[in-house]
Amino acid sequence: MLSLTEQFIDNTWVPSRSVALDPVIDPYREVTIAEVTRGDPADVDAAVAAARRAMPGWRDTPEARRGEYLKAIAAGLEARREGLAELSSRNNGKPLAEAHQDMHDAIACYRYYADAAVALGRRQGQVDASGSEGISARRYWDPIGVVGLITPWNFPLVSSAWKLAPALAAGCTVVFKPSEITPLPERVLTEIIMEAGLPPGVVNLLHGDGESIGAPLCRHPGIDKLSFTGSTPVGETVMRAAAKGVRPVSLELGGKSPILVTEDADLELARDLVMAGICFNAGQMCSATSRLLVHERLADDLYAAIDAAMGALRPGNPLAEGTDMGPLVSATQRDRVQSYLAMADREGLHSKTPVPALPERGFFVAPRLYRDVPPSSRLWREEIFGPVLCARRVADDEEAIALANDSEFGLAATVVAGNPDHAEAIARRLEAGNVWCNVDQVAPPQGSWGGMKRSGIGRELGEAGLDAYLESKRITRPETH
User: Residue 282 contacts by C-beta under 8 Å, 6 or more apart in sequence?
Assistant: First the structure.
């Protein structure tokens, strides 16, 4: 059994100051496959010190050279694609096909920011409008400094790529805390970083939990910026910690995303997009479209189609061919979702979804659709993070838009309509940072990701993702001839 008792600091694995260990569980077999240190605040001190020592040299590394390092990381992931997909599937519980999609997305992200680093070098010193005769001005972009990155357990290697790639491209050094629930894929990432030849201290990875590593990292005065993906309550804690020292934060938090189906929507397409939005990764997505708002003319037919599709799913071994849905990531997460199912019973909510046969072992929860859920229900308003879909029939687009926007969250949404222009017109009125019209939840690296309201602050991916790790500088001087 693998014992993760060391921390990756200065390109060296050093013993954690903590002797406490927690199990890493295979959520399908329900067996311990590793143990991981809880970490210690002294580990944070050592990692931040290493990152600060490395900062001057990494900042002065030419942007094109930083891009070469990122290309090498992408190549390292590509070379390990098969093994890492299997490791992620075993650690996280997602079907192997989904883990392969994660690998594709992570590799694409490093390659995108490799090119973005080169482009950053080209725009350094670009002429800026001076506004005054005899004056010239140029624009430069400097790395923000040492950044603390904290990622969740639902998308190993992808969430880290969304943060690590742009931070390195910008010239920042990093102290990175992956989830203690799924530490194994990112453990391999450190091997790839070493093989890519990154200088010591540029990337430091700390295993541990929120109390021993996450909180001290957020409070540490040597951290110049924090980027966190996770729950909204924890994000608020991160933001409070960052307020001391007036440090910037990027927060990608919770969601309760709607999927709107109009009167003229294609029924089969609507069914497929609903299923993908609530059953991919067993619903363990911040962008899961867990509130269905369907025109009353289509409601009964769509409900029946969804119930049939959910009942036909094949839950099982994530590594086995033909498995449609794996277990939830942990017993804790399974129990959380089941508590909402019990709440649904107490609230008198109605489901006709046939329960597919579940394996005898594993942290499984069968997907289900609850019909005609009132907006006052906790299942309608709270993020469940499991394959639980709440639905309401609506009379028209206006009612659907009003109900969709009646939420404290604003991360994502999907619109299914017969006419793409009609769908986009609805999308423009939705309070969400990402809206898909008649397509799956694609999130390419050149795009944008982030939410409104309590779903977060800032954007990841694309140019905005790089800018989040840069400070803009304008230099003004007399013109010379």
Answer: 93, 94, 325, 326, 327, 328, 365, 367, 386, 387
CA pair distance 113, 222, nearest whole angstrom: 25
Joined together, the tokens standing for residue 219 give 């409070």
Radius of gyration of the chain (CA): 23
pLDDT for 371 equals 97
Alpha helices in 348-443 (DSSP H): 378-381, 397-405, 420-427
User: What is the spatial distance between Cα 253 and Cα 234, in angstroms, rounded to a whole number?
Assistant: 9
Nearest to 257 by CA among 403, 372, 158, 370: 403
- Return contacts of 318-325, CB within 8 angstroms, 24+ apart: 318/28, 318/89, 318/90, 318/93, 318/94, 318/95, 318/96, 318/99, 319/28, 319/86, 319/89, 319/90, 319/96, 321/96, 323/95, 323/96, 324/95, 324/279, 325/95, 325/279, 325/282, 325/367, 325/387
Let me know if 252 is a catalytic residue: yes
pLDDT of residue 95: 97
Determine how β-strand 257-261 pairs with β-strand 412-416.
Answer: parallel
Question: Does residue 452 contact residue 440 with C-beta atoms inside 8 Å?
Answer: no
The answer to whether residues 393 and 294 touch, using CB atoms and an 8 Å cutoff, is yes
Q: Which amino acid, one-letter code, is at 272? A: D
DSSP structural state of residue 315: B
The rounded distance, in Å, linking the Cα atoms of 31 and 371 is 36
Say whether pLDDT at 128 is over 90: no
pLDDT at 130 over 80: no
Asked whether the beta carbons of 274 and 371 are under 8 A apart, the reply is no
DSSP-H helix ranges across 252-406: 267-279, 296-311, 331-347, 378-381, 397-405
Tally of CA atoms within 13 A in the half-sphere of 41 that contains its CB: 7
Residue the block writes with tokens 């609507």: 270
Neighbours of 375 (CB within 10 A): 12
Q: Give yes or no: 390 in active site.
A: no
Q: pTM above the 0.90 mark?
A: yes
Those residues whose C-beta lies under 8 Å from the C-beta of residue 298, and which sit 6 or more positions away, are 261, 263, 265, 267, 270
Burial of 283 by CB count in 10 Å (0-12 exposed, 13-18 middle, 19+ buried)? Answer: buried
Catalytic choice (63, 98, 252, 383)? 252
First CA to last CA distance, the chain: 70
Nearest-angstrom CA–CA distance, 288 and 274? 9
Of 172, 286, 390, 437, the catalytic one is 286
